[in-house]
């Protein structure tokens, strides 16, 4: 089947197969892929609105015993360069986020073997007591599995306890490529793809939702990328646990994978488009401007993305790999408008809080911190 035939079927609402996805990855017709993805996105979101959330990354610890070869952020347990943020520091960061109209805290760290469940539940309770309106979109599957391991309980029990303490939803970080072939090569101690998926689907069972992610550039095959998408689509069919999908490129600088050739913006845009075409059951696709830069982020709004992601007042993990792109709320508004869209601030659950009509700007803004 030709690329044109595959795209026509997808635009008409038919599901494409893994073999179809591989065919699309092999294609060099980026413009054609982008047009099809944009058409499909507009079926989900017919109004010319691009959403974003005002949020902050809080990396509460960098101690980690997973030792991923592509991570420049972690420090081994007991390293003199490691840290666990004091609660008061975290509270201060949350207050700063609220002060500029922020609504979301994306709190993630390493798999710290010295932190048990009560650390997390006490921290979440303390946050919600002080800031009842902040949305805690926090802790990746690898962190959840580590908590379960050191606490001697199941992943579902961990998630239920965290949810009751104040966790609202769960980011899908750490998916990378959901095949053991690649995972064993670049992060052999990390959770398996089945464990990643078990944590995400369990989050739905206890009353939360999450996001699905994908990172390309590990030297994985097109077949592996297609299998990743198939596994995400299957899980969504079964549980509807994902509200959004986010993909980005490996940032190999300063990491154990610096020998790998860094992929291009065209590789990124192609992956965004193919993901939107394949994943016919996930409504929202976020741009990854933090790794690709604001201009490519703007381009992605014509390749299947309907959302500009988070303004991300603070970011440390990607920055540790020598990739630092910064935007604030008013720059986000400008970039969305330059793409021919109307910007709108949203919640983590994709409810619209405010539409920025005309040339309206944010009254309060911030400078991204590291």
UniProtKB/TrEMBL annotation:
Domain Radical SAM core: 45-283
PANTHER family linked: FO SYNTHASE (COFH), LIPOYL SYNTHASE 2
Residues annotated to bind [4Fe-4S] cluster: 64, 68, 71
Function: Radical SAM enzyme that catalyzes the cyclization of dehypoxanthine futalosine (DHFL) into cyclic dehypoxanthine futalosine (CDHFL), a step in the biosynthesis of menaquinone (MK, vitamin K2).
Family per record: Belongs to the radical SAM superfamily. MqnC family.
Cofactor: [4Fe-4S] cluster
SMART domains: Elp3 (SM00729)
Source superkingdom: Bacteria
EC code: 1.21.98.1
Encoding gene (name): mqnC
Reactions it catalyzes: dehypoxanthine futalosine + S-adenosyl-L-methionine = cyclic dehypoxanthinylfutalosinate + 5'-deoxyadenosine + L-methionine + H(+)
NCBIfam families, per database record: CofH family radical SAM protein, menaquin_MqnC
Protein name: Cyclic dehypoxanthine futalosine synthase
Keyword field: 4Fe-4S, Iron, Iron-sulfur, Menaquinone biosynthesis, Metal-binding, Oxidoreductase, S-adenosyl-L-methionine
GO function term, MF aspect, one: oxidoreductase activity
Pfam families reported in the protein's UniProt record: CofH_C, Radical_SAM
Binding note for cofactor: Binds 1 [4Fe-4S] cluster. The cluster is coordinated with 3 cysteines and an exchangeable S-adenosyl-L-methionine.
UniProt pathway annotation: Quinol/quinone metabolism; menaquinone biosynthesis
């Amino acid at each position: 089947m030709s690329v044109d035939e595959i795209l026509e079927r997808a635009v008409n609402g038919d599901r494409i197969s893994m073999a179809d996805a591989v065919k699309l990855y092999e294609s060099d017709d980026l413009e054609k892929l982008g047009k099809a993805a944009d058409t499909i996105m507009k079926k989900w979101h017919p109004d010319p609105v691009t959403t974003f959330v005002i949020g902050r990354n809080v990396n509460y610890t960098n101690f980690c015993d997973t030792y991923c070869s592509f991570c420049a952020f972690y420090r081994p347990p007991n390293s003199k360069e490691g840290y666990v943020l004091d609660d008061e520091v975290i509270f201060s960061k949350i207050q700063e986020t609220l002060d500029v109209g922020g609504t979301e805290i994306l709190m993630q760290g390493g798999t710290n073997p010295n932190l048990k469940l009560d650390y997390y539940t006490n921290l979440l309770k303390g946050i919600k007591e002080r800031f009842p309106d902040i949305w805690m979109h926090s802790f990746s599957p690898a962190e959840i599995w580590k908590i379960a391991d050191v606490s001697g309980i199941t992943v579902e029990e961990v998630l239920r306890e965290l949810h009751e303490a104040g966790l609202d939803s769960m980011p899908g970080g750490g998916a990378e490529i959901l095949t053991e072939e690649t995972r064993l090569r670049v992060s052999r101690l990390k959770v398996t793809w089945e464990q990643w998926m078990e944590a995400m689907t369990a989050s739905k069972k206890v009353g939360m939702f999450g996001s699905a992610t994908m990172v390309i550039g590990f030297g994985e095959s097109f077949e592996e990328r297609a299998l990743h998408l198939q596994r995400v689509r299957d899980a969504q069919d079964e549980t509807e646990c994902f509200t959004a999908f986010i993909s980005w490129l490996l940032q190999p600088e300063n990491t154990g994978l610096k020998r790998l050739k860094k992929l291009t913006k065209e590789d990124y845009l192609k992956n965004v488009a193919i993901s939107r075409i394949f994943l016919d059951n996930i409504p929202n696709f976020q741009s990854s401007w933090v790794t690709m830069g604001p201009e490519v982020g703007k381009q992605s709004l014509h390749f299947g993305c309907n959302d500009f992601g988070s303004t991300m007042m603070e970011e440390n993990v990607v920055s540790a790999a020598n990739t630092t792109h910064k935007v604030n709320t008013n720059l986000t508004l400008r970039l969305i408008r330059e793409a021919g869209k109307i910007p709108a601030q949203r919640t983590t659950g994709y409810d619209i809080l405010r539409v920025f009509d005309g040339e309206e700007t944010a009254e309060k803004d911030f400078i991204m911190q590291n």
